[in-house]
């Protein structure tokens, strides 16, 4: 038992006297910078950040301020501290607008916000911010080094917003009853606001079905007018998505509408 305790004590002593600990305790900034470079190459970002925070103030106003600032921001990004990295990249751009690393800083700042974007079912404030920041980069550097990746990220974030809006309308549809009007409004707005969405097929079908449900549950004198609008939605759906997976279901509903109209016209 005593041997185990002794070995553990020796281990602690060796760790406390290691190069990183020496750099952390050193009064020489050059020692800290050298250790930062070593840690960054090994992607040990958390330890490098501890050292950065000791020396960043020492380099303000010097020729080393910009290189130190961009490395610090990258360390935060590498350690997934995205809120802090976004702030530091933006601060770098503001403080060093003519530096050669500005393009990269703008992109990585925007990408920091991208990483903060949550799953589609949660509040999408960060997603909207990320889209603005990425679009700012694309606008500033239309032929930029990171332009292709930025466009991929923008497409991914837009798809997330598409799904968020679509799922909200679909929830109203599935709840039915008093929520069916909200479903109709939701799908109408979705089709207008998300013209390139992958969910347009679904949205057009559920808009048609929602309008049909709304019509048949209306007062008798309102049914014909509301079914006529449902037919309009069907025609839009059938024209735009002739091979839709919802084709058979839509045709069944149309058959019910035509049956209703036939019975009422004959009376």
TrEMBL record:
Family annotation (InterPro entries): BamD, BamD-like, TPR-like_helical_dom_sf
One Pfam short name: YfiO
PROSITE patterns in UniProt: PROKAR_LIPOPROTEIN (PS51257)
Superkingdom of origin organism: Bacteria
Domain Outer membrane lipoprotein BamD-like: 40-182
Key word Lipoprotein present: yes
Keywords (A to Z) from UniProt: Cell outer membrane, Lipoprotein, Membrane, Signal
NCBIfam families assigned to the protein according to its UniProt record, in alphabetical order: OM_YfiO (TIGR03302)
Name of the protein in its database record: Lipoprotein protein
Organism: Nonlabens tegetincola
